[in-house]
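Task: sequence design from structure.
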């Protein structure tokens, strides 16, 4: 394909440094950014250094998805993450709730964490996530959406400032409290939980936390749903630096500080 030129016959875009060209590509949808590899030899490998990736598999949740859609998504994601160069990933969104291969999803996450991700949004069907996700020194912002939030024994997120957790169950084994305490830089915490039992205790203890949002809601399709007033959760706080507290629920709640 011939190089595109302006009216003065000069191709400014192809003469840009790789760093600027990759920055421009980061504003495109990820699939379109990868497609630029077909433009010319100059653009063939630039996509491997894009710092912002949005891998969206939400269409796989559609009952009428095209045949081979999952395989196509897997191949694309493999190419995007496993064939990538050594450059860092500043921002990654991985939405693959429709993927059945949990081992492969775990591999994607581990590979991504090896690129020093700064902002990560993960929506996966797994109940156990790779330890690499919980031991990242680069993560500043993390958003997790999983059916059950399980925290591994080994956790250390020294740079994490913003944390958002959404899941179907909030374990009462102290692991969540541990997660908060091993994030020494944490400033904003958001918890979005589905009601999983009649009563529940949410314990948040952190000396630097400034903003806390707790949203509890019930799944209306549940066959064992109870009336609103029967759902009660207790929020225990030890947060001396807290400036903003938002607590919303479809049931009742008690606050202790």
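Answer:
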């Amino acid at each position: 394909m011939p190089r595109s030129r302006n009216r003065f016959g000069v191709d400014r875009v192809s003469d840009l440094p790789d760093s600027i060209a990759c920055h421009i590509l980061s504003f495109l949808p990820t699939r379109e950014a990868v497609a630029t590899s077909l433009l010319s030899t100059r653009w063939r490998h630039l996509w491997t250094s894009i710092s912002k990736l949005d891998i969206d598999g939400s269409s796989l949740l559609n009952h009428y998805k095209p045949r081979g859609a999952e395989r196509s998504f897997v191949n694309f994601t493999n190419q995007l993450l496993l064939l990538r160069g050594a450059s860092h990933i500043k921002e990654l969104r991985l939405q693959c709730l429709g993927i059945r291969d949990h081992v492969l999803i775990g591999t994607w996450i581990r590979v991504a964490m090896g690129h020093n991700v700064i902002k990560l949004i993960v929506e996966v069907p797994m109940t156990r996530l790779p330890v690499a996700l919980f031991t990242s020194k680069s993560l500043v912002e993390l958003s997790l959406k999983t059916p059950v939030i399980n925290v591994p024994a080994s956790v250390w997120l020294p740079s994490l400032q913003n944390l958002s957790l959404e899941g179907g169950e909030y374990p009462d084994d102290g692991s969540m409290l541990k997660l908060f305490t091993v994030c020494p830089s944490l400033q904003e915490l958001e918890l979005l939980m589905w009601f999983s039992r009649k009563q529940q205790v949410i314990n948040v203890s952190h000396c630097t936390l400034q903003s806390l949002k707790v949203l509890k809601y019930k799944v209306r399709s549940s066959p064992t749903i109870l009336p609103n007033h029967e759902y009660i959760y207790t929020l225990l706080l030890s947060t001396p630096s807290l400036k903003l507290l938002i607590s919303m629920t479809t049931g009742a709640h008690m606050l202790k500080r």
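Residues 3 and 11 are 7 Å apart (CA to CA).
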